[in-house]
Specification:
The protein has about 300 residues and is an alpha/beta fold. The chain folds into 2 domains: about 200 residues, P-loop containing nucleotide triphosphate hydrolases (Rossmann fold), CATH 3.40.50; about 90 residues, Helicase, Ruva Protein, domain 3 (Orthogonal Bundle), CATH 1.10.8.80. Helices cover about 45% and strands about 15% of the residues. The protein has a 5-stranded parallel β-sheet with strand order 2-5-8-1-9.
């Protein structure tokens, strides 16, 4: 089966549960195919957790949900050693981080110390606990949800944490037709439980390998570097995109091109993923404190294609 047919199948599968959010579903899928981590930020109750659940189900991945709260500790995520009297030694009990897809639910409700427990796992696919380094399963994805920063009981994610998320998306409220279908339909949790995976482990690996094989022409790299240079030189931005962000934008564009059935990345592929990849990484300069994320991305989209 062709790559586009596989990705369309997953998108349709998720779209049967999360209604009216086709573009957000395709962005989330592109993020995972690019081997990245996904941050979903929006109001409570709009389907953030449901989207993470249905993607895990669709891809047939071992899934763990971690509810982040203010009293959550790093050991609750990574694991802990417990003394075993039979062997007269301490035995490590892995935490929920040792799964293929982790849902870090309401990640900004935990303290910065607990948030930092994910840094090594997200960047290096390993965790170091009590002096020992342990590999995480392959593939490994983190999908985190985040409540609006102005809500009570939230801690802002530091830039180093945000930069490890390849994409950040928002779902928004459903349109009238989708909401009517939700009101009249089966409970989403019951619907997910009755579904079977629509992608095998081999098909997922094939798609991920194919993403990196999508051709990127020198002219496209010129455009990518022009975008990066603009963020570093703009007086309205506090800091430019990092090299990690540049790689994220490249891989996301490759994944989007693959999902569109192409073997070559076009400028419109990069423009399609740019808001989700760059938006959460940009900060306005103090003199332009009221500059919104949408306005910063709009400025980037004005950079001419070489």
């Amino acid at each position: 089966m062709k790559n586009r047919e596989l990705t369309d199948r997953v998108a349709a599968y998720a779209g049967s549960v999360v209604l009216g959010k086709e573009r957000q579903i395709r962005l989330a899928l592109a993020c995972l195919l690019a081997r990245g981590h996904l941050l979903i930020e929006d109001q409570p109750g709009v389907g953030k957790t449901t989207l993470a659940h249905v993607l895990a189900k669709a891809l047939g991945l071992a899934f763990q949900r971690i509810q982040f709260t203010s009293d959550l500790l790093p050991a609750d995520i990574l694991g802990i050693s417990v003394y075993d009297r039979d062997s007269a030694a301490f035995k490590f009990h892995p935490g929920p981080i040792f799964a293929q897809l982790i849902l870090a639910d309401e990640i900004n409700r935990a303290t910065p110390k607990t948030q930092s427990a994910l840094l090594e796992a997200m960047e290096e696919q390993q965790v170091t606990a009590e002096g020992d380094t342990r590999r995480l399963p392959e593939p490994f994805f983190v999908i985190a949800t985040q409540n609006p920063a102005q809500q009570i009981g939230t801690f802002p994610l530091p830039e180093s944490q945000l930069d490890r998320f390849l994409m950040c998306i928002a779902l928004g409220y459903p349109d009238r037709q989708a909401e009517r279908a939700l009101l009249q339909g089966v409970d989403r949790r019951e619907l997910i439980e009755g579904l079977e995976p629509c992608l095998t482990a081999g098909e997922l690996k094939t798609l991920q390998t194919a993403v990196r094989e999508v051709t990127v022409a020198d002219a496209l790299l010129d455009y990518l570097q022009a975008l990066i240079d603009h963020t570093r030189q703009s007086p309205r931005l506090q800091a430019g995109l990092s090299p990690r962000a540049g790689l994220a934008l490249l891989h996301a564009a490759q994944a989007w091109a693959l999902m569109e059935g192409r073997t070559l990345v076009l400028p419109e592929d990069m423009q399609a993923v740019l808001p989700s990849v760059a938006g959460h990484r940009l900060r306005p300069h103090a003199r332009y404190g009221d500059l919104s994320r949408e306005e910063m991305v709009a400025e980037l989209l004005q950079v001419p294609v070489p």
